[in-house]
Specification:
- With 150 residues, the chain is of the alpha+beta class.
- The chain contains seven helices and five strands.
- It has a five-stranded antiparallel beta sheet with strand order 1-2-3-4-5.
- The radius of gyration is 24 Å and the shape is elongated.
Length: 150
């Protein structure tokens, strides 16, 4: 069984609840600039601020490196989190339940292992059968050892 998707209304509610300026301020010194906030981009080296946070619209943007996104995207980039990890972290911070974020269970993982094993068998049979002669010759020509090819 595949993981269920996060309902769009849950993501919308999460984005509405997260204080984007507060989140970004943990990593970037922001200064007000009209209705926006600006600072040095955390994603590339720069001397003059080109990184903007627009709280009214819920996004950040860097004129230098073109990084852009919302609170989820910012957390993904800053910490290297997956989408689901970032959503879970932000939801925890704002007290939003995201129980619908199932991850693949053991059944799913086993199914993926089975499919991978079947694909491996299929391609090994093709490579070492009659129809794989040209492919084997190419591998040999490239210096690929038989053990590696197997």
């Amino acid at each position: 069984m595949a993981p269920r998707q996060i309902p769009p209304q849950t993501l919308e509610e999460l984005r509405r609840r997260v204080d984007l300026v507060g989140l970004v301020s943990r990593h970037v010194t922001l200064k007000p600039s009209g209705r926006e906030f600006r600072g040095l981009c955390p994603f590339h080296e720069e001397r003059t601020p080109s990184f903007y946070v627009v709280p009214e619209k819920g996004f950040f943007f860097c004129h230098g490196c073109r990084a852009r996104g919302d609170a989820i995207g910012f957390l993904q980039r800053m910490r290297g989190d997956s989408f689901v990890e970032a959503v879970r972290e932000l939801a925890r911070e704002v007290g939003l339940s995201v129980s619908q974020l199932d991850t693949p269970g053991l059944d799913e993982a086993q199914r993926l292992r089975d499919v991978t094993a079947a694909a491996q068998e299929h391609f090994q049979a093709r490579l070492w059968g009659e129809e794989g002669a040209a492919a084997r010759a190419y591998l040999e020509e490239r210096g690929v050892l038989e053990a590696t090819a197997r």
